[in-house]
Amino acid sequence: MEEEFKNLIKVSFCVLMSLAYCHLVSSNISKGKFRLLSITPIIFVFTILPTFLTFLLPNAIATLFFTWMANFKLLLFAFGQGPLASDDHQPKSLIQFISIACLPIKIKRNGSNPTSKRSPKLPLNWPTKFLILAISVGLHDYMELFVHPKIVLLSYCGLVYLVVDIIFGACNTIVHFILNVDLEQPSDEPYLATSLQDFWGRRWNLMITNLLRHTIFNPVRSSLETLLGQWAPLPATLATFVVSGLMHELIFYRLTRTSPSWEVTCFFVLQGLCVVVEFSVKRLLAGRWRLYPAASAVLTVGFVLATANWLFFPPLVRTGAVERAIDECKVLKFV
């Protein structure tokens, strides 16, 4: 554990120095290929940096934060776009630049996200989620002994939701305290989604959704609009899910330390195909037929859970990554 803390400090220092370079040097280079060239070494560093962490959870979080999110934000920044770009010709401060680049946050703008003002149907605050997660981790060994394996597998969906929401929520709290800015919520009660579009586009992991929208969906849609017209969002949606699947495959590779099975990529490709079908059916029906919200919510969440149990979790369970991750959570409770 002591050695891992030392590695974590070294990785954090390297991230800070790399982003300081991007802010002080790359931001003064004209946007385009020359700024991209100046940022390319940092993208390479952020890709390999998580491999210096030996524990599974820190490695996976670092891969998500740096290899995926920070690199995608830097790619947008290279062309003067995205959250790192200057606002109204006012450059961001160094601490703002670093916080936005390496953490899963999005500064709230007036009218930017009306759903963030909506009162939650199931008010679970951050401490409550942390308590539920701690209890779930503590009971995991007993569940494996006395509960059906399929139910245990289903419980992992709740654990993933809690872990992601707690980590992203903690980042929100820290940045809000340091910068005194209002931030978008990391998710919007995904268990109440009434369609796959609603789940993946407006409720689950909104920081990743927003980043993929700007880096993959919008460019692909724009490039195909002349050819496909109003149907251009369909291949753009599928491309977005393919990229998401590949990035998750990298995270799983870092978690399992085994060769990719490509099951998680298939999970996201399947979700993308179903979103495309759902979008097409809705457009063809033009609102002439619609399920009750409660029924559509059950079908949507049920489909996501069923396909997650089929394709998403088996690689983690088969390689023992889930057990090791839960053991690490237990260790952290006593540190």
TrEMBL record:
GO molecular function: O-acyltransferase activity
Alphabetic keyword roster: Acyltransferase, Lipid metabolism, Membrane, Transferase, Transmembrane, Transmembrane helix
Domain of life (superkingdom): Eukaryota
Pfam families, per the entry: MBOAT_2
Record GO cellular component, one term: membrane
Transmembrane portions of the chain: 7-26, 38-57, 159-179, 231-252, 264-285, 291-313
Pathway the protein contributes to: Secondary metabolite biosynthesis
InterPro entries documented for this protein: Wax_synthase, Wax_synthase_dom, Wax_synthase_Magnoliopsida
Bilayer disposition of the protein: Multi-pass membrane protein
Record family assignment: Belongs to the wax synthase family.
GO BP term, example: lipid metabolic process
Protein name: Wax synthase domain-containing protein
Subcellular location: Membrane
Origin species: Turnera subulata
Domain Wax synthase: 188-269
